[in-house]
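Predict fold of MFS transporter, DHA1 family, multidrug resistance protein; 435 aa.
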Amino acid sequence: MLGPFPFTGHEGLKSGRCAGSRWIGRSTFGGVSLPLTSPAPFRPSAAQLGLMASNFLMWGGFFAVIPLVTVHFVGDLRWTAASVGLVLGLRQLTQQGLTVFGGAWADQVGPKPLILAGCLLRTLGFTWMGFADSLPVLLAASVLAGVGGGLFDAPKNAALTLVTREGDRTRMFSLMSTCGNLGMVTGPLIGAALIGLGFRTAAISAGAVYLLAALVLALTLPGTRPAAGAAGGGLGGLKAAARDTRFRRFTLVLIGYFILSTQINVLVTLRAVELAGKSATGPLYALSAGLAVLLQYPLVTWLDRALPTRVALVGAVLLVGTALGLMAWAPSFPALLGCVALYSLGTMTVYPAQQSLTARLAPPEQVGSYFGFSAISLGVGGAVGSVIGGWLLDVGGRLGLPALPWLTLFGVSLLTAAGLWWALRTLPRRVRPGR
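Predicted 3D structure, encoded as tokens:
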């Protein structure tokens, strides 16, 4: 890395050679010959590769079985849709609620043991689902799976922060998200192949995938403990995150974004079905996840070098809102897919920016607590978005204003973007990529 040497007169670069992507040369400063090197290229470590591989496995295992829960218990066993909705909602509530505390515990004991324990509990929960023959049993298995997710969710982000240099965190979170999206694409395909062998086989197989993820992380992820005498996590870490005015504002304003992002499962899906029938959901999700797999890493890497993180985040939120607003006038399914492409470009940019900013704002000894506290925005925004999306659609229909939900969401994006710009108006100095 070039040092801040005040070259003057004839003093400067004398000789050099290029080795790979690093410039190696020598300079003279005050009569002393000094080596000059550019930043080393980014190469993921074993721990980072392990986290990416496990994220792919976790997302793949999740989407291999969760979509089949409705198919099996409602379609095959003729349970009511409301009962299965209760099962899925309870798992989501359990996971998001426990994630707040999972991050705080990671600051006390280190993230690795919590991630491994969470994977094992998720294995047991999904396997138990395969043997469920009554609603209470399925609810218990779902809660166990949710507890597992709550244990590994925030600690996984904390672990990635601890094993990644600050300048490389945005691209690493982007790679993690890309691996997750790849799992989201392949998981349903594997699940569809396994359902022919029975739901029990699919559930056991999905649980085994989490066992494999635990093995990968056990071999690659180093154990980390809080520094002696450091003010760790627990409830104290959560209180510190809640009292951090800048971070609290950042987290609360992001609720607006998650109201927008959850619409892919609500308003956007309903609009796709309206335009092209039930078969439209496959291409819809394939396009969204496929674009993330192909474009997220190069897009985020370019943005990370070209723009301040705050600018990229605010612009991405506005893009998501604009895409939703345009969907009101999409005359056909291909036109809707074009809006979904814009929507996906925005959402794939927000996640790594949000995670990178959370890591930057958190004190090193309370990273897990801050990631846990940040889960509030997803939990609240996702729940509110699911309710308000359908409500706005009903109100618009009654008033004869079909564009009402879409224009309302565009307004939410404007307020959210303005709120983020205000909440992040002062930020710690950012370390540039590669440094």
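The mean pLDDT is 80.
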